[in-house]
Amino acid sequence: MAQVTRIPDPVPVAAYLTDLQHRLCHRFEALDGGARFSTDRWTRPAGGGGLTRVIENGTGLEKAGVNYSHVKGAALPAAASAARPAIANRPFEALGLSLVIHPLNPYCPTSHANLRFFITTGDNGDTVWWFGGGYDLTPWYPYLEDIQHWHRTAHAACAPFGADVYPRYKKWCDEYFYLPHRGETRGVGGLFFDDLNDWPFDRCFEFIRAVGESYLAGYLPLLERRMSEPWGEAERRFQLQRRSRYAEFNLLYDRGTLFGLQSGGRTESILMSMPPLAAWNYDARPAPGSREAALLRCLKPRDWLNDKAV
Q1: Confidence bin at 246 (pLDDT 50/70/90)
Q2: What is the predicted pLDDT for the residue at 25?
Q3: Listed residue (127, 139, 142, 242) closest to 187, CA to CA
Q4: C-alpha closest to that of 146 among 46, 234, 218, 68
Q5: 119 within 8 A of 7, measured Cβ to Cβ
Q6: Residue 267 burial (CB < 10 Å; 0-12/13-18/19+)?
């Protein structure tokens, strides 16, 4: 864990994340064509607060949440310090932008992105900091060209930082967004990283910005391409069945959800990632050879840059 004598300044990180939140909301409102994000500014009794912005029941976006938080506390929660016992219970400052987009059209994939920065200071004045985040894509009806665009955009964002960065963070994403009780990944992956302080602070921050910009470049074209696809009751039913897996991961395994709840965060903002509707139909299985069955072949780690079929 990096220790430094000069404390990295969180102000530019906060400025970037709040600007990205504004741009994301503007772009998603334009894409939806009707709905507007509600704005909910909140404060946390233990220190800090945030700005939660949510669309519900839009023309194209059934639910979309883009949440910025900047919180402080007297003791780092277990979800953030489990891998770092030496810094457990230290005072901390945490900044983050988290978003989940649940389109109405079943042919549009759900997506999630998160960028965060932590900093703690010990009794002896030593400072520990790190970045984390990433994004992942969860289609219900997979299209190879969409998945490859998503991964090629992620690869291009990582390339200036080293040839090993995309493969390492792609693998981490596959392993992290995995439901062991279902034996499947949450979707088709993307990037995931934590404890990022291998480079100097400015270089790490540059990488965070590259990831943030590539999310927009990777996801918005997929929505523009699929939002007009015709769909019916059968597609909607399958979408709701698969959304239940999304909810299971967020409630059982997601580190950000656990951190928010353990740190006394605002419950409504923490759980904004949940889908508005989901279904748990008993032992629901798609018919062999159907388009729905094609999704199940995608729910395992794959080389999406070079695969020839879903």
Answers
A1: very high
A2: 98
A3: 139
A4: 218
A5: yes
A6: exposed
Give the tokens for residue 167. Answer: 């493969």
Confidence bin at 3 (pLDDT 50/70/90): very low
Q: Which amino acid is at 120?
A: T
- In the DSSP assignment, the letter for residue 307 is -
Strand partners, 192: 134
Amino acid type, 196: L
3-state secondary structure of 250: helix
CA distance linking residue 221 with residue 215, whole number of Å: 11
User: Tokens 């903002």, residue?
Assistant: 269
> CA separation (Å) from 182 to 127, 153, 224, 245?
40, 29, 31, 8
- For the chain, helix, strand, coil in percent to 5 are 40, 25, 35
Q: Which residue type, as a one-letter code, is found at position 279?
A: A
Q: Which burial class, exposed, middle or buried, applies to 33 when counting CB atoms under 10 A from its CB (0-12, 13-18, 19+)?
A: exposed
Which secondary structure element, helix H or strand E, spans residue 152, and what is its range?
helix 144-158
Angle at 137 between CA 133 and CA 141, to 5 degrees: 170
Structure token pair of residue 52: 């939660």
Catalytic positions, please?
112
Q: What's the pLDDT band for 90 if we cut at 50, 70, 90?
A: confident
- For 163, phi then psi, to 5°, come to -65, -20
